[in-house]
Amino acid sequence: MYFCKELLQVLQSDKCNLDNWIFADRGILMMPSDCTVDKFLRLESMKIWERLIRGIKAEDKNGIFSQKTTSETYNNAPRYAVIDAEIGLSDHKVHDIGALRHDGGVFHKSSKSELLGFLKDVDYLCGHNIIHHDIKYLFEDEPCQWILVDTLYVSPLLFPERPYHRLVKDDKLVSDQMNNPVNDCEKARDLLMDEVAQWNSQPDEKRILFASLLKDKREFEGFFKMVGATAVDDRPADLVRSIYKGMICGNADIDMMIRLYPCELAYALVLIDTTDHRSVTPGWVLKNYPAVEFVMKLLRETSCSEGCDYCNTKLNVRYNLKTFFGYDGFRTYDGVPLQEQAAKAAIDGKSLLAIFPTGGGKSLTFQLPALMQGRSVHGLTVVISPLQSLMKDQVDNLADRGITDAVTINGLLDPISRSLAIKRVQDGDASLLYISPETLRSKTIEKILTARNVVRFVIDEAHCFSSWGQDFRVDYLYIGKFISEYQKRKRCKTPIPVSCFTATAKQKVIQDICDYFSKTLNINLELFASNASRTNLRYSVIYAETDNDKYLKLRSLVSEFNCPAIVYVSRTKRTVDLARKLTSDGLKALPFYGKMDADEKISNQDAFMSGRVRIIVATSAFGMGVDKKDVGLVVHYDISDSLENYVQEAGRAGRDPELTARCYVLYNDNDLDKHFILLNQTKLSISEIQQVWRAVKNLTKHRTKVSCSALEIARCAGWDDSVYDIETRVRTALATLEQSGYLIRGNNVPHVYATGITVKNMDEARERISSSVLFGSDETETAVRIIKSLISQKNIAKAGDAEGESRIDYLADILGLSKSEVVSAVERMRQAGILADSMDISAYLLDAGDSERKAMLLLTRFEKLEKYILSCLPDEPLRISCKQFNDNALNYGITTSKEKDIRTLLYFLTVKGYVRKKEDAQHNMELRRVGDMESTIKRLEKRMEICQVAIEWLYGQVDDKDGDKSGSKPVMFSLVGLLNYIKQKQKSFFTELDNVKLDDVEEALLYLSRIGALKLEGGFLVLYNAMNIQRIKDTKSRFKQEDYRMLNEFYKQKIQQVHIVGEYANLMVKDYNAALQYVSDYFRMDYKKFILKYFKGERVNDLQRNLTPKKYKQLFGQLSERQMEIISDKESRCIVVAAGPGSGKTRVLVHKLASLLLLEDVKHEQLLMLTFSRAAATEFKQRLMQLIGNAAHFVEIKTFHSYCFDLLGRIGNLDDVDNVVGRAAQMIVNGEVEPSKIGKTVLVIDEAQDMSGDEYKLVKALMDANDDMRVIAVGDDDQNIYEFRGSDSKYMYQLTKEEGSRFIEMTENYRSERHLVDFSNDFLRNVSRRMKVTPIKSMKESDGRVEVVHCNSLYMYKPLVNCLMSHKGKGSSCILTQTNEETVTLVAILRRHGIRCKLIQSMEGMLFWNMVEVRYFMKYISKHVTSPLIQDDLWEKAKQKTFSLYECSKSLVYLKRCIELFEQTSKTKYLSDFREFVFESSVEDFCDLSGADVVVSTIHKAKGREFDDVYMLISGNYAKDDCLMRRYYVGMTRAKQRLFVYTNGNCFDRLRADRHMTDREQYAMPEEIVLQLSHKDVYLQFFKGRKNEVLALRSGDRLTYGNHFLYNAAGMPVAKLSVNMQKTLAEWESRGYSVRSASVRFIVAWKPKDAPRDEAETAVLLADMILSL
After folding, report:
1. Which partner for 452 in 380, 1205, 1291, 1542 could form a disulfide, CB atoms 3.0-4.6 Å apart?
2. 1496-1507: buried (b, 16+ CB within 10 Å) or exposed (e) per residue?
3. Which of 57, 48, 55 is nearest to 194 (CA)?
4. Is 64 helix (H, G, I), strand (E, B) or coil?
5. Which of 1005, 1072, 919 has its CA nearest to residue 1427?
6. Coil, strand or helix at 145
7. By the 8 A CB rule, do 1363 and 1572 touch?
8. Is the pLDDT of residue 15 over 60?
């Protein structure tokens, strides 16, 4: 019998050359000449098999079956048939039937009635999965008259060991043919023959045992009848104990298992009997008989109390410690064998929480039980860890010991390595699997874990469960849900135990971990905690004043201690800089950080571990799992962000207990502030989660389930692509929303399935793939491998997870291919007809509107814009921003262009290889066209034609009866279906119909999706790493503070941990022992008691702030109670502050900005401040920089106009502001603005009283677009003096009516002395419609002085100047007037008196950026710049050239001041930023008032300034109204100490003043006046043709006047007065004045507004003319 079995294996092996069959000395089997080898073998093996069934031993004397014996056996053989049915996947009907009969008869039809005739004389009906599959479809309505023999259930019983039976894979027969049931019958028959042979080769006692265990089981009884098995009733338990003595627990309750779990016991016993521990029970067995794992646990994993040989050795941790690791004993902690206790608890099936110090041997504590259970129950231990590098290290460390049972599957693996790792888990090679929490969401991981006996889940870094831990991770909270669902899926009898490990944990963290598992899995964790401290470590803290001092101390330490040293720093860049600096000083060091190139990281680590390099400078990423015994020095160059992390990192020194190691901290208080800044950057605020939730609601508007990528959600949420670690932040937000019940995030499952195989066998598939033009040489092999994998799992209809095995990600994982490779091959096989076409793409026609016409219009609009973009790309690189591109397109005449559309198109063109694009953080781009222009345009036009057909076809697919084109119902289609439709179109439509390929259609669909003509899901979009999201809560629900509680608790703890580690450093400097006690108390005491002990009184409040006490006092210590009220308000949705003059409005706003950034979780990209002038924006940026440093550079502080130009995608300037704010507001309302441009969490408005209707509309649009956006509006309703341009304080008032609004009055005046405040309060009684009700209160102690002089004269210049002269030198002085004419006249008078004065006045029609000096500077830079960033050397050269050329120009000072301010407020100098800065500025923004005795200004231009003395010149010939009164109020509140009012009106009568005086003298007209000419005062057409003469002049050059012309020094006319100016001059002349002198004031560029775009500008001269009596 044994001989026959072996003979058949030889005959069927590849080694036997059957074509030249020659036998040695005996003719064993004679093959007839007319018989094929396959047929002969089949017939002979059938004969042998029949004899085996009968158990007939009739052999001739030579042991060879004779022809006669064989014939007799054949006649007496059981009558049987092997059957297989092909069942339809969708209709579940029988499509084809194959059968083989015992007499050689073959059946291959689909008729059930004919099948019955074929089976007429048959007793046994055999098949693979026949009992639960074929029979129920074939004879569902008829009684079964045959004895059923199922090869499926017997196979793992008889072939449990690797390598498993060659004909079986999982629960299916291995086949290389499709839809051929006869072929499958042959396979099933061959399998059955081997099963019978294997059964008969078993010892009698085993055959009796299994027959007895399974005698009444339907799945096995037919087989046992066929082989004539003998069963007994009374001895099975004894047989088990006898046969498996020493292999199972001697005291296991076998009788109970026989009674309750006979099948499970049988499968468990055969696995126990295998010699290869890597053999595993097939997944389908575990699914159908889940108690197999439970029985294995009882037999081999449950230690008996009585004690037996098996339990005393195989379940003894000390015995196995020696076996696996070679150690004689476990590590102890202060004599306590915690490591051994924890390992034993794991073997006893307990769940545990182990807290061992760094280097304390926690890895061995879970690795040993895992290896033991891998051997005993063939189990898999799953280790979940957040650190991918640590996973690899642990796997490698085990491999170095010769233990190859560990595998890791993580995102760092390439496809081939991932495939091999998955296969090792599937095949049973792995006893330990390391994965990350995110990996649990993979469908492939779920599938392979379900097929294995998972005996334990180990969670490393378990403190991540607790918001009180130092590294809380929301994705850890998914672990419990995964384990719970896994246990339900596996129908586990008992919970799968869990082991949690962490190096350090305080009491609250321990409680949180225990509570989590009690709540989610109903299991209790047994605690194993080490209280032992490392006695061989000596700690020190050295205070370092400066960075240089810190480096010198570091260098001294690493020089002094000549041993391996780790230097820890907090930032990646510093690792490189510090390592380089140490190396240059002769102390060779290497850097190490988390995101370093993998090869360099490994190389540097190896160099340190091997001793080639003594010093490694690293972030905290270094050292996890690294075991270097001789590290004698650890220096924290930057202190850690928590005591937990510090203890872990310092603990990497002195791993050798015999070595005394030193641990130093180089400390400065500023180190803590760096941690706070980093925390602010990485923190996920409630506002950001609310933005993600809003994005999810938008994406699920029409349907609750969507598939989208993290980046897509981020963009929809309004996040800029440059946001730090954007995908991780989105996933964390989604995990938080999932934890709070807002949504369910499904597994990461692509929508593409490779189903519907149309070829019959592998040969046909290979032939069709090879002959198809669709496959390149490299793609052919990929396609062959895919189809082979699918055919080998052919019986898909019988599989419980039909889609699972044909899913694209699963195929990619098991074949070691990328998803894109699989998708490409599957689509081509569909096109070639090898795979049936599958409608796996969903098109939602929601974004195109409700009509096909709208979609076509959208397509036309984008085509026009795309052609313009491509036409602008020269052969060399183009450097430009999207905003500039859009501005150019609009100016070109593409009126529908939007910056958002240009960004969309450039993204598409880059992805599809039309252009190459580089982009910096400021979104300045370098673009380069890839192909030539002609071929590029042809490709575009072809795509557009395909898009048109696609839109027409997709709309045609919508059910006309249903008529639903709302987007809620998808149109299902496939790429191949659309391609075929295109090819069927009339040939006239395309120039080259046959040339349309699958890639072209894919490109067109991607294009339609990107431009918003339709939304696609599924299909090839698998490439975009989509996540499945299902919204649970309705769209009206909002993410609340309570939902944020756990994350918020974690961030609060992080803040406290930084303070706590800082306190440790300060204590260590003062008292070593007290510091050690402090650390001990931190880990052992109740947290609240610890805080009460060490942080008393007000210090408790310090713990809540993410600033050091010193920094907090520096920033906010000098603010008043009312000012702090505004700073401290973190809740109100809308804070409206009515701030009186001198109340510190600017100061409050600057400090509020600092508070938002440093204390209120607002990231710079989420903050927007809007002002009404560039000067204000610049001042805020400067003051914020002084307060918080370089972080201020990243805050967006813009004017309303500048921000709106951004939204419109235009380059702004003061000459083009008509309705720009209104247009931008409407675009937001219409949804036409990119979310990232308006996705803000805080909006700050300066001078809110100056808002007009358009500005208020913009603010409301922003608030409506951001449900949770906070608004902080500060202004003074009493200082609204711009009503002439539409501003009105009523809009500021309307903000106070918003829900959640808070109105605050700031009425404390820190500027003006008491009498001045009383005077202005009295004056305010004349003003109606005021918001403030509380009078302004002076906070000064002195009274000050107010004088009102009532003049009878029309001209009041002289008495005012005389008064000013009498008070000269007593502080800063300012004269305020109503008109420009009055200011220039006063300047002339003051200068004649020898008083140095500066003038601030409005420049009507004068634009700063048109000044010749500015134009020259900008032109020089634009001409020489080679990138969006202005290089420093170019900037300096442009300055030098300009300053040299215009050194004699008096107006050069404005440019110099402009450049100075830009340099102060711009960390990096971008050309686009400088242009915007210049375009938005006005000349008066750069008036330098330094060195002036007196400033002369109109009241409007003095707003926001302050002076010791103010002199107001108020004529009485103006109509009294609120606007005028408010203007006067602005003027008088500029004064700090003294106010002098000269008036010939009655506005100031009866007001409290120190002195009211009447001056009855009539004063003459001033002797000299100055006329400052503006554009309207000169004849502009005169300058045409005189450009060179005008440009030769400089500001300040003297001119002569005659007959309405101005002449240069050479006597050439360079300007002509306008007709109106000539009349004005005539009026002055009639009063006795004549032109005494003239000079150049400004030279500016000009051209008419209605001039053609290409018309050149001309130079215009604006002069000062001095007239005298």
Report:
1. 380
2. bbbbbbbbbebb
3. 48
4. coil
5. 919
6. coil
7. no
8. no
> What is the rounded distance in angstroms from the CA atom of residue 1664 to the CA atom of residue 1599?
9
Residue 819's nearest CA partner among 478, 449, 442 is: 442
- Sign of the torsion angle spanned by Cα atoms 970, 975, 977, 983: positive
- Read off the tokens for 699: 């994406």
Spatial distance between the Cα atoms of 194 and 165, rounded to a whole number of angstroms = 9
End-to-end CA distance of the chain: 139
320 contacts: CB under 8 Å, gap ≥ 6: 314, 368, 371, 372
Q: What is the pLDDT of residue 793?
A: 55
Contact yes or no for 1052/1060 (Cβ under 8 A): no
Report percent pLDDT > 70 for the chain: 88
CB 1181 within 8 A of CB 1215: no
Q: What's the whole-number average pLDDT of the chain?
A: 84
Distance CA 876, CA 542 (A): 56
For the stretch 210-260, pLDDT in tens is: 999 998 899 999 999 999 999 988 788 999 999 999 999 999 999 999 999
Evaluate the CA torsion angle 567, 572, 574, 576 in order and state its sign: positive
SS3 labels along 264-331: HHHHHHHHHCCCCCCCCCCHHHHHHCCHHHHHHHHHHCCCCCCCCHHHHHHCCHHHHHHHHHCCCCCC
CB 680 within 8 A of CB 384: no
Instruction: Identify the residue whose tokens are 């051997």.
Output: 375
Task: Give the helix/strand (H/E) hosting 1510.
Answer: strand 1507-1514
Task: Tally Cβ neighbours within 10 Å of residue 658.
Answer: 7
Residues 6+ apart with CB under 8 A from 679: 641, 1051, 1054, 1055, 1058, 1106
What pLDDT is recorded for position 1527? Answer: 92
- Collapsing DSSP to helix, strand or coil, 517 comes out as helix
Rounded distance between C-alpha atoms, residue 648 and residue 1552, angstroms: 72
d(CA 615, CA 608): 7
Q: Which two tokens stand for residue 1277?
A: 């309703």
Structure tokens that stand for 959 in this block: 């059910």
Vertex 1664 angle, CA 1662 and 1668, to 5° = 150
Closest CA to 86 of 125, 42, 127, 122: 127
pLDDT by residue (tens digit) across 701-730? 877 888 787 878 888 888 876 666 788 888
Nearest of 1565, 1581, 1522 to residue 1547 by alpha carbon: 1522
> Can you read off the two tokens belonging to residue 990?
């395309």
708 — phi, psi (to 5°)?
-155, 160
Length of the chain equals: 1669
Block residue for tokens 């059930």: 112
Return the DSSP state at 1275: E
Residues 6+ apart with CB under 8 A from 313: 319
Residues near 907 by Cβ (< 8 Å), separated by ≥ 6? 1010
Gyration radius of the chain's alpha carbons: 43
Q: Give dist(CA 1084, CA 466) in Å, integer.
A: 17
- Ramachandran class of 359: left when φ > 0, alpha when ψ lies in -120 to 50, beta otherwise: left
From CA 483, how far away is CA 1396, in angstroms rounded? 82
Q: Which two tokens stand for residue 1346?
A: 């107010």
Quick one: angle between helices 218-227 and 151-158, nearest 10? Answer: 80
Q: What is the reported pLDDT for 157?
A: 94
Statement: residue 563 has pLDDT above 50: yes
| Cβ atoms < 10 Å from Cβ of 179 | 16
| β-pair type (1605-1607, 1598-1602) | antiparallel
Rounded-to-integer distance, Cα 905 and Cα 862, Å: 8
At 881, is the secondary structure helix, strand, or coil? strand
At 661, list the tokens.
């190691």
Tokens of 256: 């109970």
Residue among 1167, 1156, 1193 nearest 1178 (CA):
1193
Chain-centroid distance of CA 765 in Å reads: 42
